Amino acid sequence: MEEADIGLIGLGVMGENLALNIADNGYKVAVYNRTADKVDAFLANAGDLKSNVMGSGELATFISMLKRPRSVIIMVKAGDPVDQVIAELKPLLEEGDVIIDAGNANYHDTVRRFSELDGTGIGFLGIGVSGGEEGARHGPSIMVGGSEAQWKNAEAVLTAISAKFNGEACCAYLGTGGAGHFVKTIHNGIEYADMQMIAEIYGIMRDGLGMSPEDCAKVFKEWDKGPLDSYLIEITGHVLDAVDDESGKPLVEVILDAAGQKGTGRWSAIEALNLGVSATTIEGAVAARSISAMKGERVRGEEIYGAGVKGNATISLEALEKALLAGKIAAYAQGFAVMAKASEENGWNLPLATIAKIWRAGCIIRSRFLDQISQAFDSGGAANLLTQPAFIDMMKDSNGALRAVVATCAINELPAPCLSSALAYFDAYRQARGTTNLTQGQRDFFGAHGFKRLDKDGDFHHTWPSLIG
Ligand code: NAP
């Protein structure tokens, strides 16, 4: 009976495809799902992979199918369902077995789950899996956190099913505790910023330059051959030239302009704020999704203030391409800076070059750009991309275009929260003499917070005039 190399709980979109991927790679996988019918359907539809899949709608039977020490992947809805599944699994597992949470967990939950399993002898790994449905089926990017010894139990299977970039597996052990889920969270934060900046550029093309979706699609397809070459730019071209079967119109014109969010972008922004690291592009992207969801208020806002100027922008497509590259550099610089700081605070020793490497294929933000980032971190230097030689050259070449695009947006009444925050970050990052000297003076005035001086060491306080009376 004990013949499966690994077990998987949760036959949703991701779980089902991950199980097929495992079977496809020659490993035997046992599956379980809360709604038992899905197990029957999965086994019935396994086709050529039939000999590598087994399963049961009964949890104890499912566990009895696994080779010891057992490795069980949980791929269910994030949050309480994960705790419920762990509680059901605990009495059925024994010392040496490992539970692997592969969902999009908040890393604080992962840390808590580690401590709750502490002393039971049952191991735990928190792994981030990126790539959506297709990635899960044909090779996702996998970010592993937990004990390195327990990772060894599942390493062969997870490495085999991951995406490959030039033959290198996009799967790596990144650090203890919640490191894997933290890195996945920041991956999603960067993804939010990347997508939002692309949407802002599309907005300039549509409303500023009066371009049709078809024409925009052509431009994005062209850009996919240059420095912006990435999965997100590629799918943007396809989304923009898709036609709606029902209306015959470009599909993008009938899609409601209101986005949902499941939490990872917001968590990224919250973690950055808690760590005291500037991640304004991620914050801008989260805020953009929030305002997108206020469709009714935006309609009312346009009635009150007018729609803004349409079709009057004068900006070249070349400037838009370069601006997107500059914005992207700022967003990735911020995301990696957040990870570097979290690594320091949590003692993770996160391998930044490896993270960039395992994001080169399989995941949603995969791109040529990530290969350049991995090379930059591989050659050492500071954690902020803006001080890495290859990116210094790119930023010097492209920040002028970002400036021109943000100015165009301001003049033409086009919102560009992410691109403009990328520019503001860049300008603040390279301003040796900032303006918080004034802020420090104000803080000392009303709260006696003190300040430091440029010309001597120590803490100082000024005797300010009283404004009372
Ligand atoms: P999904 O299609 O909505 O499937 C949810 C699964 O969770 C189903 O198998 C469901 O079982 C199970 N479930 C829900 N509540 C449960 C509970 N209380 N106890 C036991 N099982 C429960 O979800 P998904 O899209 O595959 O996502 C799974 C995880 O992967 C999530 O953490 C998600 O954030 C993450 N993720 C998703 C994507 C993506 O592109 N979809 C990408 C990366 C990561 P029933 O069939 O019984 O309802």
Automatic annotation (TrEMBL):
Keywords: Gluconate utilization, NADP, Oxidoreductase, Pentose shunt. Pfam families: 6PGD, NAD_binding_2. One of its GO terms (molecular function) is phosphogluconate dehydrogenase (decarboxylating) activity. Pathway: Carbohydrate degradation; pentose phosphate pathway; D-ribulose 5-phosphate from D-glucose 6-phosphate (oxidative stage): step 3/3. Transmembrane segments: none annotated. It catalyses: 6-phospho-D-gluconate + NADP(+) = D-ribulose 5-phosphate + CO2 + NADPH. Residues 180-465 form the 6-phosphogluconate dehydrogenase C-terminal domain. Signal peptide: none annotated. Its EC number is 1.1.1.44. InterPro entries: 6-PGluconate_DH-like_C_sf, 6PGD_dom2, 6PGDH_C, 6PGDH_Gnd/GntZ, 6PGDH_NADP-bd, 6PGdom_BS, NAD(P)-bd_dom_sf, Pgluconate_DH. It is an enzyme of class 1 (oxidoreductase). Gene3D superfamilies: 6-Phosphogluconate Dehydrogenase, domain 3, N-(1-d-carboxylethyl)-l-norvaline Dehydrogenase, domain 2, NAD(P)-binding Rossmann-like Domain. Belongs to the 6-phosphogluconate dehydrogenase family. Homodimer. NCBIfam families: gnd, PRK09287.1. Catalyzes the oxidative decarboxylation of 6-phosphogluconate to ribulose 5-phosphate and CO(2), with concomitant reduction of NADP to NADPH. This is 6-phosphogluconate dehydrogenase, decarboxylating. The lineage of its organism: Bacteria, Pseudomonadati, Pseudomonadota, Alphaproteobacteria, Hyphomicrobiales. The gene is gndA.
